[in-house]
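Bumping with the actual sequence this time:
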Amino acid sequence: MKKQSFSSTIFPVTAAAVLMLLNASIALGGATEKAILRFNKTNGLQPQNGLIADSQGNLYGVTTSGGISSCIPQGCGVVFKLSPGLNNTWTEKVLYQFKGGTADTDIPTTDLIFDAKGNLFGATWQDLSGHLGAVYELSPGTGGTWTEKIIYRFTSSGYDPGTHLTFDSQGNLYGTLGQVFGASGGGVFQLSPQSDGTWKESILHTFSGNGDGQYALGGVVLDSKGNLYGVAQGGGAFSRGIVYELSPNGSGGWVETILYSFMEQVDGAYPIAPLTIDAKGNLYGTTLSGGANNFPVVFELSQSGGTWSETVLYTFDKYGYSPSNVVFDAKGNLYGTTVNRGAGCNYPGCGIVFTLTRQSTPPWKETVLHNFESNLDGSEPLAGVLLNNGHLYGTTEYGGGRYGYGTVFEIQP
């Protein structure tokens, strides 16, 4: 079947038009925001994942629905590319529209990731055709076309892949499953490329709940020594979630170490977003609640003498729902989003983009870079931000126009 594509040019909004159109671009903390793409259902609908960039500054992302209307009324999702042009314009192209059914898959739910050859990889949820989701590969071809291939279907192991995938230097792909058959709390998987072009799945660890973790939805990150790190939303010593490490044991197996069990009330509870690891091996993340007054937190885990300790870097107020993962700039500042909170849209707010600046002692200083207003700039920025060439880029699940199909936004700090 011939692949369909949709392309459109998104023109910049001038400063004068911004003021006339009620905060399409708002300056806070010296930052300016604008929507560089407003989804229209045909080219995608309600993105829930973040963006990645290539060396030319092109942006890539997925939407969980939209695209081919014959798939389901809302479409089965798309993979899209945004290319920068002259005069700060952006051109969108849909690289692939998921079709569902037995020959394809649907509902992409993980962030995209490049392999060493420039191919894109991602995973889909328990799809609408009764399958248990799949991992797919998109490969660039001549004339700007991309070819999709399902490299692995989850069948007997589990389903509900987490939001973040990771490659190692040997080309193995790692991720998490929210549900693993025969285990109560999900698990961590590895896909290894085989000489015949197939991929072999191994379940590296299954979570049992209780003292172990449960519902590992954030994927894993890899350090320079080949250890994997992630969070589980539940389980642990206090049933409020954990940060864990998986280390190869030298005999083909993996050993889990629980680095931290969240206690709630002070240190946070229910981590769900992917972790970030710095050059020193410190881990950074967020929780859904559990800090002072049971509000979400941004935390750091650092190691000294083989012991890991947690520091709460910042505690949000009661409207800071679902903070995303956080990313660093070259100066050590952290950036992220919250789904609600902020001055836009009245209570409880349409979400914000924030930065945290290191202080001599916690808490770090927060600056709100943008308050989303829904209609033109979007609302509910679920997936955090990408820092690329000094600018921040991200997606909003809703807003951006009359029907609220979501946006891609750019912020110039």
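The tokens above came from a reply further down the thread. The first strand starts at residue 7 and ends at 10.
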